[in-house]
Design goal:
Elements (H helix, E strand, L loop, with lengths): L8 H19 L19 E6 L3 E5 L3 E3 L4 E5 L10 E5 L5 E4 L2 E4 L4 E9 L6 E9 L15 E4 L7 E3 L6 E4 L7 E13 L7 E10 L2 E12 L5 E2 L2 E2 L1 E10 L2 E2 L10 E12 L5 E8 L2 E8 L6 E8 L2 H5 L6 E8 L2 E11 L2 H8 L19 E2 L2
Parallel strand pairs: 2-9, 20-26
Antiparallel strand pairs: 1-4, 3-7, 5-8, 6-7, 8-9, 10-11, 11-25, 12-24, 13-21, 13-25, 14-15, 14-24, 15-18, 16-17, 18-19, 18-20, 21-22, 22-23
Length: 375
């Protein structure tokens, strides 16, 4: 009888143990929620991925946006509010500042790397680059509809903006306040929103005190009442002004507080939709001198309209640092182009040469006053 060779019990148990370990390892090698994840991932992490939706982002100086627009956080299951929390950092806080989930562009012509890290699983993170582009219109002091086309606001990019939102806008120049400057722009009214009966389009002059814009300002405008539009053709000829003290418009208050007059100057021929006219202003102290330009080429003409005076009476002499100019319109689509700003004394003197100022007269008794007509 042939003898059977017996395997020692210790060797048998060892072999069975090795087989069990290998089987367990193979069974948990995938990405399933119950097993260990590959690449050293945390098996208890609720976060599947955190990725940037864009490699690079361009913001305008002064613009503030939510960082959540530029990353996507995905979980193995529906994430709780706590699991959705991330930490956001900027490699250059002087260029792009992070406050909570908000990114604010501070310094033009520079960039910063933004890093987003999951708080539930710090091994998950992503980055994207933010470059900051300069601006012509101050984002803090302006009121700009998100639908407006501001893509070419810088003169080197074309120097043209359009208020496509159809609501009211204030586009305030990104300039230091001054009591001596000249600003100009070409303006065309493209359309007026339904329901707006008394639209106006022109320039705004905001007062600055103690380094901040106040609620005191003035508007000088083309008056565009819709009762002077027939079959889609506008017949607008009147230019006027409105003073605003502490946020109260002149047409909403007693004339003794602040003033407005819609027909200080009357143009000989009407301005229609999509027809460009030029407003040029010269500010000297607290006086605003207004000029109107129209026509092209050899037929181009510029006329002096009027001077708005009395800011010291309205707002008080105080320690005001002066004014910052800009554009405004009420509930309309308006195009502004070829705008400029200068404090050059020679250019200002040339514009005012031969001009004898005539005041935007106002009679507080009957809301009237003298009207100036184009000769």
């Amino acid at each position: 009888m042939k003898k059977i060779k017996l395997i020692p019990l210790t060797l048998l148990l060892f072999a069975l143990g090795m087989t069990a370990c290998n089987t367990n390892k193979g069974g948990n090698s995938g990405q399933g929620s119950g097993g260990q994840q590959e690449s050293g991932e945390n098996p208890d992490s609720p976060i599947k991925s955190l990725v940037a939706t864009k490699d690079s982002v361009e913001l305008k100086r002064g613009e503030q946006v939510s960082a959540s627009s530029y990353y996507k956080l995905t979980g193995f299951k529906a994430l709780s509010s706590k699991e959705k929390k991330v930490t956001i950092t900027s490699s250059n806080p002087s260029v792009v500042q992070v406050t909570g989930a908000l990114l604010k562009a501070l310094t033009a012509n520079k960039s910063s790397t933004i890093t987003v890290t999951s708080q539930a699983d710090p091994t998950k993170s992503c980055t994207f680059e933010v470059s900051v582009k300069d601006i012509f219109f101050n984002r803090q002091y302006s009121e700009i509809n998100a639908e407006n086309d501001m893509s070419k606001e810088l003169p080197e990019d074309g120097g043209i903006v359009q208020t496509l939102g159809g609501t009211s806008d204030f586009l305030i120049f990104n300039q230091e306040p001054s009591t001596s400057f000249m600003a100009k722009a070409k303006i065309a009214v493209n359309s007026v929103s339904d329901g707006e009966s008394w639209p106006k389009f022109g320039m705004a002059f905001k007062q600055v005190d103690d380094g901040d814009v106040t609620q005191n300002f003035a508007l000088i405008f083309l008056d565009g009442p819709m009762n002077r539009v027939t079959d889609g053709v506008a017949n607008w000829t009147d230019f006027g002004y409105c003073e605003i003290a502490n946020g109260v418009y002149g047409w909403d208050s007693q004339p003794s507080l602040n003033r407005h007059k819609e027909n200080v100057f009357i143009k000989k021929t009407a301005i229609n939709y999509n027809e460009f006219f030029t407003l040029t202003t010269v500010v000297q102290g607290r006086n605003i001198h207004m000029f109107l330009g129209y026509g092209e080429g050899e037929s181009a003409k510029e006329v002096y309209m009027f001077t708005l005076e009395g800011y010291a009476d309205l707002f008080g002499a105080g320690d005001g640092r002066g004014f910052v100019p800009g554009f405004f319109q009420f509930n309309s689509v308006v195009t502004y182009k070829e705008y400029s700003y200068t404090t050059d004394a020679t250019a200002i003197a040339a514009q005012m040469q031969g001009v004898t100022p005539r005041l935007a007269d106002y009679d507080s008794t009957d809301h009237s006053g003298e009207i100036y007509y184009e000769e």
